[in-house]
Design brief:
Structural class: alpha/beta
Strand content: 5-15%
Shape: globular
Mean pLDDT: 92
Low-confidence stretches: none
């Protein structure tokens, strides 16, 4: 029962504590925030701005990506300045926040376009793999979880570590004052919870990504085979 005839024993490693980082990084966690609306008063943007303030107070360095001017996927080449700005932010980040409005029961096309412009691989580098992710949504009406559920699927597809907590803000137009600041409420408290959890998971995992992401299946491939696979032409 213990025989493993299909295993390459020289590439079979027993997980253990020794693989984890001994000295934590001291730089501020780097967080990229994406939102899914171009409206002048975009509630997904306002939520992301609240998140950025909270993250800064918790010790993070943040960047909010403005999707204005981002072309539809495949309508321009990847050298477009807005695509390059997005991809550079993804590579820079150690964690991300995705917040989209719900439109017709799903995330907006603006949100999906941003994620679609993020490649699964750049050469032999997977730009999102192992980064932590918090998912959020704003609703025009009653509370829904359609968008956060979809964003979780995308986060898993992008090989990200999506944290357990999430936020869904119903009737978002009632949750902000005339200065575009979020009012005190259980919904605001939940956003604080989500950002706190994102920071904890980021601090826990960011130094251990090389160990956490080390895979048996990739160890048994040669470097040439791995490079050939991740550099396949885009479908």
């Amino acid at each position: 029962m213990t025989a493993l005839p299909n295993i390459q024993t020289d590439q079979f490693h027993m997980p253990g504590q020794d693989g984890f980082a001994k000295v934590p990084s001291r730089h501020k966690p780097r967080v990229l925030l994406l939102y899914g609306s171009l409206r002048s008063r975009s509630f997904s943007r306002l939520v992301v701005e609240e998140c950025a303030r909270l993250l800064a107070a918790m010790g993070a360095e943040t960047r909010i990506y403005d999707p204005t001017g981002l072309p539809l996927p495949d309508s321009e080449d990847a050298e477009h300045p807005k695509v390059q700005e997005l991809r550079e932010g993804v590579m820079w980040s150690e964690a991300q926040v995705w917040c989209s409005p719900e439109r017709h029961g799903a995330m907006t096309g603006i949100m999906k376009a941003q994620i679609d412009w993020i490649p699964l691989s750049l050469g032999a580098v997977r730009p999102t793999q192992g980064k932590t992710l918090a998912v959020m949504q704003v609703c025009g009406g009653s509370q829904s979880f359609n968008v956060v559920n979809q964003l979780r699927v995308l986060g898993r597809w992008m090989r990200m570590l999506t944290i357990p907590n999430q936020s869904s803000v119903p009737k978002a137009f009632l949750e902000f004052d005339d200065n575009d600041r979020m009012k005190p409420s259980p919904y605001y408290n939940r956003i604080v919870d989500v950002m706190e959890e994102l920071m904890k998971f980021t601090l826990l995992t960011r130094d251990n990504n090389p160990y956490l992401l080390d895979r048996y299946s990739e160890r048994v491939e040669s470097a040439e085979q791995l490079m050939a696979r991740v550099n396949q032409a885009d479908i």
